């Protein structure tokens, strides 16, 4: 009996070339005659362009051409938004190179094409652009008043208003009744600061226009969507475009975009007839690659005196920034389904107003809507506990769905297939020493220790496996949510797996090899996973939304099943047996009750030679499958943070972090562990460190890694991780998804912990990030208002 | 364009003589002139450490110095670490501890870790974290990177089983 691959902590196939410097990131590519691009960007957040003089730049040494918005106005189209959330959604045209007006600082106004990157950058300073400055709107609550318009032509800053009402949807009671009858009403406003995905590899694109097909290499999460969208935007037949995502250095949603820079690089290559490369600097990346979060959450939670929640009302202002990117408008809507989280709320209303401001546009960032929702509800559950003088865990227990109640239709209308919140919580409490830390907390309060201890709790669920195509259709998203795979059987019996979901660090090559090794009974080493090139992987919807395993992996398994079906016909013929008498196990077809067998490898060669196949059977075992999920999957978990807050300096540090995640059946525990760690780091970063800050003119102040505080190794703790395993019932493997869990769960755990440490000193809330200065200011303010109890 | 200067630099055991512009950064020289694309650029401000190499055996961020400053000196990049197809203990440890995901910070992280272990062969967890302060990773949350450096220091990686073309085995600890 061979050892099952699924569940093994296989070391990654992807590592060899990455640890030896044989990497293939886009910026590493050099092509004969290749030209280099540099972008001229607007220093103003809102201005009319009155003239663009490129004469000096054109005569600068090494410059081949300069493109302005007017030069390409007829061919650049408008960059796509694939998610018109309402029929009335308003959006400005989004040219890759601005023509008449710029709406955020960093917007491209011209592109230099030169023989070297240095020559291109030198010439940037020689382009003379005249601007008439316009008033800027930067603050979300101000944007909602329409006093200053981000796009005067639209007549409003509101792009769309989207509502879910459980009373109207028939999934619960009307919210008005719950609020009117509230014994306890918790009203809070939370601010989701603007974040920057800050993938380590700056975005880069190389376009080769030589030959009949234009080849685009790009640091993207979405080669297939990019191909389709570039074709539609620029008027190139899709069949004339090949997109390759080679090694991609992280994405986190930040490379889920069709960017101006990609379109411009295609235009530049088309204009010059030569290969062109554009690689952004880090400051360009922070300024102009899309941002995330940026929401104001106005919340009302009604409950009984016993702590039973009766309703939740959410009014959201969501910052689109200056334009609608690929899924900008849909990100807050994804959150709409998660505010009720793991709880049995009888009534729920969600209203989101999508607003334009003069900042870089927002879009998907790890979790995309779900971290914001989870933060809001987990903060509110703590606020309710404080109001009622209850333990925050007890409040959660009183409201969560118990494991006997699955499947459970949530008040937001989703069917949760499985879960066991009690089990995950019990395990977390045990690992954390909850009682011990509560006792220490009491001692420190008693002793008025300058370093106070707080315990933060976050119980969460999320929706993974984006997404059932019919659901996306109902939400007005333009595309489907299926994924494609192909399993090819080579004459030697080696296997090639082609997946539409291409990885940028997630380890698909290893995990998919494990899936197929088990399914086909071939050695792990004999499976090669191919992805990220539309010429090899012709169909796909790419990588985001914790979808790869639960959608893409299922397509791989389905394609492998088809290989077995095809091989069975040939095996029966070769062994002169009836198909009904065959069983397939460990890579062999055996005739039941005999010792006769033939291996997949033997069948592969027989199929290749095709000398002796049954009549009418194709000499080909290769199989395709496209999998469209019928439901999301719902990972969940309990995260506990022990926070130490120095009340003299305001510094909050993580003393202990325990998380128990239930992500169903695990293919590779090593990869899962890595995903959890990285997710935690990004969620903790939102809670404690990161924020995109603009000055009053709309210039990004946090424009380099000096100011935008991506945490380093000393800023993060040692995480204690564990798992419970409640298999998903929505896919054949029982898997759920893990890419975003850590990010979604950790932010509220940390902030709840910080507040728990200082609440007895009169602090009621602290806006993220809970930096030393903010915590200190909150403590001082509490002192001044006599908050010390 | 400024007048160019002739420099001679030994990079990964090969001596190169080139005319370079004085403003050319060492990392640009490595990547653009020598094709040493294993060394990567992640920022413009010497914060991320993706471009870390060794200069005469000590780690430097190659975006922080000019190519002309490397004249007459010896540079080792990530591409020069493995010898005869055999990985160094640190490279093995990064693989075995799953200390990389997208891999973009990895060359710099490994070069900095090597330098760290040279200065302090038996660092504590905190010393490792502080020693890697100048190298950012967005994928791993650092825990497995710290574990990899610790494993390399402790000599607990599998000795010769991993080669440059890496047979994938199962992790000892999950």
Outline the structure in words:
- The complex is a heterodimer of chains A (789) and B (174).
- With 789 residues, chain A is α+β, with helices and mostly antiparallel strands.
- Chain A has four domains: 17-83 and 93-134 and 200-250 and 255-288, Aldehyde Oxidoreductase, domain 3; 136-196 and 291-391 and 398-404, Aldehyde Oxidoreductase, domain 4; 417-470 and 631-789, Aldehyde oxidase/xanthine dehydrogenase, molybdopterin binding domain (Aldehyde Oxidoreductase, domain 4), CATH 3.30.365.10; 482-627, 2-Layer Sandwich (Aldehyde Oxidoreductase, domain 4).
- Helices cover 29% and strands 23% of the residues of chain A.
- In chain A, helix 12 (370-388) packs parallel to helix 21.
- The longest helix of chain A is centred in the last third of the chain and has 27 residues, at 548-574.
- The N and C termini of chain A lie far apart (67 Å).
- The model of chain A has no long low-confidence stretch (mean pLDDT 97).
- Chain B is an alpha+beta fold and 174 residues long.
- Chain B has five helices and five strands.
- Chain B has helices spanning 26-33, 89-96, 106-119, 125-131, 143-154; strands at residues 5-11, 14-20, 52-55, 58-61, 74-76.
- A five-stranded mixed β-sheet of chain B has the order 2-1-5-3-4, sandwiched between helices.
- In chain B, strand 3 and strand 4 form a beta hairpin.
- The longest helix of chain B is centred in the middle third of the chain and has 14 residues, at 106-119.
- Chain B is elongated.
- The relative contact order of chain B is 0.15.
- Mean pLDDT of chain B is 92; it is low at 160-168.
- Chains A and B meet through helix 1 and helix 20 of A and helix 2, helix 3, helix 4 and helix 5 of B.
- Chain B: InterPro entries: 2Fe-2S-bd, 2Fe-2S-bd_dom_sf, 2Fe-2S_ferredoxin-like_sf, 2Fe-2S_ferredoxin-type, Beta-grasp_dom_sf, Diverse_Oxidoreductases.
- Chain B: GO terms for molecular function: 2 iron, 2 sulfur cluster binding; metal ion binding; oxidoreductase activity.
- Chain B: Keywords: 2Fe-2S, Iron, Iron-sulfur, Metal-binding, Oxidoreductase.
- Chain B: This is (2Fe-2S)-binding protein.
């Amino acid at each position: 009996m061979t050892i099952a691959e699924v569940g093994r902590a296989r070391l990654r196939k992807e590592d060899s070339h990455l640890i030896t410097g044989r990497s293939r990131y886009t910026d590493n590519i050099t092509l004969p005659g290749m030209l280099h691009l540099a972008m001229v960007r607007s220093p103003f957040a809102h201005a009319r362009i009155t003239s663009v003089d490129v004469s000096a730049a054109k005569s600068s040494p090494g410059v081949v051409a300069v493109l302005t918005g007017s030069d390409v106005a007829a061919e650049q189209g408008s960059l796509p938004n694939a998610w018109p959330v309402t029929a009335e959604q308003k959006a400005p045209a989004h040219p890759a190179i601005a023509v008449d007006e710029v709406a955020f600082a960093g917007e491209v106004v011209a592109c230099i094409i030169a023989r070297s990157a240095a020559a291109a950058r030198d010439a940037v300073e020689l382009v003379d652009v005249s601007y008439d400055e316009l008033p800027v709107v930067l603050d979300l609550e101000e944007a909602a008043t329409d006093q200053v318009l981000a796009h005067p032509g639209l007549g409003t800053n509101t792009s769309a208003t989207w509502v879910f009402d459980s009373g109207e949807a028939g999934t619960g009671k009307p919210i008005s009744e719950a609020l009117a009858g509230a014994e306890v009403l918790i009203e809070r406003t939370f601010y989701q600061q603007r974040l920057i995905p800050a993938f380590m590899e700056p975005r880069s694109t190389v376009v080769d226009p030589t030959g009949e097909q234009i080849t685009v290499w790009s640091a993207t999460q979405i080669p297939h969507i990019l191909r389709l969208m570039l074709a539609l935007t620029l008027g190139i037949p899709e069949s004339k475009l090949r997109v390759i995502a080679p090694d991609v250095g992280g994405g986190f949603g930040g490379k889920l975009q069709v960017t101006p820079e990609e379109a411009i690089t295609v235009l530049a290559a088309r204009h010059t007839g030569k290969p062109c490369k554009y690689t952004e600097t880090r400051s360009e990346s922070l300024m102009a690659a899309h941002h995330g979060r940026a929401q104001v959450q106005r919340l009302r939670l009604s409950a009984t005196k016993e702590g039973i929640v009766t309703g939740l009302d959410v009014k959201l202002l969501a910052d689109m920034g200056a334009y609608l990117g690929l899924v900008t408008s849909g990100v807050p809507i994804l959150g709409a389904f998660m505010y009720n989280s793991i709880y049995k709320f009888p009534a729920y209303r969600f209203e989101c107003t999508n607003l334009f401001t003069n900042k870089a546009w927002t879009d998907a960032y790890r979790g995309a809507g779900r971290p914001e929702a989870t933060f809001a509800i987990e903060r509110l559950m703590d606020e309710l506990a404080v109001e009622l003088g209850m333990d925050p865990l007890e409040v959660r227990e009183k409201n969560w769905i118990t494991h006997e109640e699955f499947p459970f239709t949530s008040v937001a209308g989703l069917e949760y297939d499985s879960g066991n919140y009690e089990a995950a919580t019990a395990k977390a409490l045990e690992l954390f020493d909850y009682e011990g830390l509560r006792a220490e907390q009491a001692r420190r309060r008693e002793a008025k220790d300058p370093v106070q201890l707080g315990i933060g709790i976050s119980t969460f669920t999320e929706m993974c496996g984006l997404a059932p195509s019919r659901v996306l259709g109902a939400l007005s998203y333009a595309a489907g949510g299926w994924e494609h795979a192909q399993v090819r059987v080579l004459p030697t019996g080696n296997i090639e797996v082609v997946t539409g979901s291409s990885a940028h660090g997630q380890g698909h090559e290893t995990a998919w090899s494990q899936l197929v090794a088990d399914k086909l009974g071939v050695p792990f080493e004999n499976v090669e996973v191919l992805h990220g090139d539309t010429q090899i992987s012709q169909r796909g919807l790419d990588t985001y939304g914790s979808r790869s395993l639960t959608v893409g992996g299922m397509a791989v398994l389905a394609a492998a099943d088809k290989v077995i079906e095809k091989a069975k016909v040939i095996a029966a013929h070769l062994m002169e047996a009836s198909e009904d008498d065959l069983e397939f196990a460990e890579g062999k077809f055996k005739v039941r009750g005999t010792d006769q067998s033939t291996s997949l490898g033997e069948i592969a060669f027989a199929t290749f030679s095709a000398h002796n196949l049954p009549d009418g059977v194709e000499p080909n075992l290769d199989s395709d499958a496209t999998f469209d999920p019928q439901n999301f999957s719902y990972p969940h978990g309990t995260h506990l943070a022990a926070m130490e807050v120095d009340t003299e300096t305001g510094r909050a540090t993580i003393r202990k972090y325990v998380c128990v995640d239930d992500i169903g059946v695990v293919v590779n525990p090593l990869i899962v562990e890595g995903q959890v760690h990285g997710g935690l780091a990004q969620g903790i970063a939102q809670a404690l460190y990161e924020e995109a800050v603009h000055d009053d003119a709309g210039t990004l102040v946090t424009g380099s890694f000096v100011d935008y505080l991506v945490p380093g190794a000393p800023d993060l703790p040692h995480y204690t991780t564990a798992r419970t395993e409640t298999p998903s019932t929505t896919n054949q493997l029982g898997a759920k998804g893990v890419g975003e869990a850590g990010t979604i769960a950790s932010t509220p755990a940390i902030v709840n912990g910080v507040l728990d440490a200082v609440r007895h000193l009169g602090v009621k809330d602290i806006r993220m990030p809970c930096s030393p200065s903010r915590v200190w200011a909150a403590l001082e303010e509490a002192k001044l208002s006599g908050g010390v109890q | 364009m400024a007048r160019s200067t002739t420099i001679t630099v030994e990079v990964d055991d090969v001596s190169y003589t080139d005319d370079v512009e004085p403003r050319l950064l060492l990392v640009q020289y490595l990547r653009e002139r020598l094709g040493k694309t294993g060394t990567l650029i992640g920022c413009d401000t010497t914060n991320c450490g993706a471009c870390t190499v060794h200069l005469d055996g000590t780690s430097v961020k190659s975006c922080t110095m000019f190519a002309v400053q490397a004249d007459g000196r010896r540079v080792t990049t990530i591409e020069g670490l493995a010898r005869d197809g055999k990985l160094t203990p640190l490279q093995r440890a990064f693989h075995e501890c799953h200390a990389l995901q997208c891999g973009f910070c990895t060359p710099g992280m490994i070069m900095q870790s090597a330098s760290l272990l040279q200065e302090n062969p038996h660092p504590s967890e905190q010393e490792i974290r502080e020693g890697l302060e100048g190298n950012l990773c967005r994928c791993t949350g650092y825990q497995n990177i710290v574990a990899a450096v610790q494993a390399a220091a402790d000599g607990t990686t599998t000795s010769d089983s991993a080669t440059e073309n890496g047979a994938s085995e199962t992790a000892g600890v999950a």
